[in-house]
Amino acid sequence: MPKKGEIVPLFYRISLAPGGVVSIIDQQSIPQVNKDLFTDVLAMFDANILGIDVIMAQGINTPYDQQDCILLEVNSRPYLKMHDYPRFGQKEDLNRYFSHLDQFEISQADVF
User: Fold this and answer.
1) What pTM value is reported for the model?
2) 70 burial class (0-12, 13-18, 19+ CB within 10 angstroms)?
3) Under 8 Å between Cβ of 56 and 62
4) Pairwise CA distance, residues 20 & 62, whole Å
5) 53, 75 in Cβ contact below 8 A?
6) CA-CA distance, 14 to 20, in Å (whole number)?
7) What is the residue-wise DSSP string for 8-55?
8) 66-72 — which CB contacts under 8 Å span 24+ positions?
């Protein structure tokens, strides 16, 4: 029997549409090697922002090179609003990142 408040994953949902949830992760718990991986992917695409979809067998708190890991895709226009309504954890203040993004001049921003 699960304890009160314990999260018991029954199966994984890899996107929001079929029932995935946003869970806030303590940034300090993410190994630097994982942060470097995401920064490297961003640099490969010469991008200011990307949504990077990744599955890590043991989770983001374990270095990617010590577990099974697959990068599924990158999204050039990630859905950022989901971070306003996390299911688990306290909403983070991401305004400093958003204000930085708002300063970019984006050509063809109305083209999808």
Assistant:
1) 0.74
2) exposed
3) yes
4) 21
5) yes
6) 6
7) ---S---STTTT---B---GGGS-HHHHHHHHHHHHHTT-S--EEEEE
8) 71/41, 72/14
pLDDT per position as a tens digit, 44-92: 998 888 899 999 999 999 999 999 999 999 988 888 888 888 888 888 8
Pair 101, 48: CB distance under 8 Å:
yes
Cβ pair 79, 106 in contact under 8 A: no
Sign of CA dihedral 27, 14, 75, 109: negative
- Phi, psi values for residue 73, rounded to 5°: -170, 165
Residue 97's H or E segment, with its range, is helix 95-102
